Amino acid sequence: MSAQEHPLGISFEFFPPNTDAGREKLMHTRDMLAERNPRFFSVTYGAGGSTQNRTIDTVNAVRQCGISTAPHLSCVGSEKSQLRELLLSYREQGIDNLVALRGDLPSGMGGVGELRYANELVEFIREETGDHFQIAVAAYPESHPQAPSFEADLQNFARKMNAGANLAITQYFFNADSYFHFVERARQLGVEAPIIPGIMPITNYSKLARFSDACGAEIPRWIRKQLEAYGDDSESIAAFGEEVISRLCRRLLDGGAPGLHFYTLNQAAPTLKVVDNICSPH
Ligand code: FAD
């Protein structure tokens, strides 16, 4: 960690905007979050290469502030030749961090591609570019939605780490025990690399509910009920969300989490409030 980095080891994730207004907003968000000295930023990638150019452009715009910025890269629906070209281009541009994923192809969008799972992508990156990239992969404390069992998913996670990943970032969750349990079980399988909790600030109930259903993250009943009761009162949702997520983050850090990775959705305020709460004495 450099002397400049935030002592907690925080990182922030963005998606590539597709309008001028979105790009302008992201640069403002980036500037505000950069003040908290994150370890890195990351930028998501549309499976099958659907946001490839926007991801690269966004990475290059974001990293102009001097903070390392990792493109996400998914293998589903892509040929090895395309992935090779992209990796070499990233290396040439001086990018040295990646988040390597399988991705999810929207239904009806072509075949699976040559690499079926993220462990194969990690192997491929190591074969093609050696140790150039620091590679992060995804972890699922509440299990990946397509996994046949928790055990099978955990074994697959360990395989992916053993293929040469340097760290893992989890899917978001609201139950700290699921994270602690996952880390403990992964350690028993010999995974030693940092497993960083992914944190989703709560700002909008209907979007969160839809997204959580799709990615298999459980919203505990007491949170759901409270958010439902607020209806359209976005101020109350934001205040409650801030309290719940700040408490979750404190518990994770107190329990030994090696950092926090925030899914910012390109908004500064909800993430900043949580970061500042967990840094203030409590
Ligand atoms: P994998 O690790 O390949 O796992 C997928 C499923 O296959 C799991 O059920 C696993 O148990 C199983 N499996 C894994 N390996 C094997 C194997 N060798 N044999 C049999 N079964 C196996 N999606 C995007 O499209 N773009 C993004 O930018 C993006 N960023 C993300 C960032 C983070 C931090 C996280 C947590 C998720 C992100 N996602 C993104 C979503 C991710 O692409 C999906 O969750 C996807 O369904 C799985 O990707 P993975 O890399 O975890 O897959």
Automatic annotation (TrEMBL):
<dbReference type="InterPro" id="IPR029041">
    <property type="entry name" value="FAD-linked_oxidoreductase-like"/>
</dbReference>
<keyword id="KW-0028">Amino-acid biosynthesis</keyword>
<comment type="similarity">
    <text>Belongs to the methylenetetrahydrofolate reductase family.</text>
</comment>
<comment type="pathway">
    <text>One-carbon metabolism; tetrahydrofolate interconversion.</text>
</comment>
<dbReference type="GO" id="GO:0035999">
    <property type="term" value="P:tetrahydrofolate interconversion"/>
</dbReference>
<dbReference type="GO" id="GO:0009086">
    <property type="term" value="P:methionine biosynthetic process"/>
</dbReference>
<dbReference type="GO" id="GO:0071949">
    <property type="term" value="F:FAD binding"/>
</dbReference>
<dbReference type="InterPro" id="IPR003171">
    <property type="entry name" value="Mehydrof_redctse-like"/>
</dbReference>
<dbReference type="Pfam" id="PF02219">
    <property type="entry name" value="MTHFR"/>
</dbReference>
<keyword id="KW-0560">Oxidoreductase</keyword>
<protein>
    <recommendedName>
        <fullName>Methylenetetrahydrofolate reductase</fullName>
        <ecNumber>1.5.1.54</ecNumber>
    </recommendedName>
</protein>
<keyword id="KW-0486">Methionine biosynthesis</keyword>
<dbReference type="InterPro" id="IPR004620">
    <property type="entry name" value="MTHF_reductase_bac"/>
</dbReference>
<dbReference type="GO" id="GO:0005829">
    <property type="term" value="C:cytosol"/>
</dbReference>
<keyword id="KW-0520">NAD</keyword>
<keyword id="KW-0274">FAD</keyword>
<comment type="pathway">
    <text>Amino-acid biosynthesis; L-methionine biosynthesis via de novo pathway.</text>
</comment>
<dbReference type="GO" id="GO:0106312">
    <property type="term" value="F:methylenetetrahydrofolate reductase (NADH) activity"/>
</dbReference>
<keyword id="KW-0285">Flavoprotein</keyword>
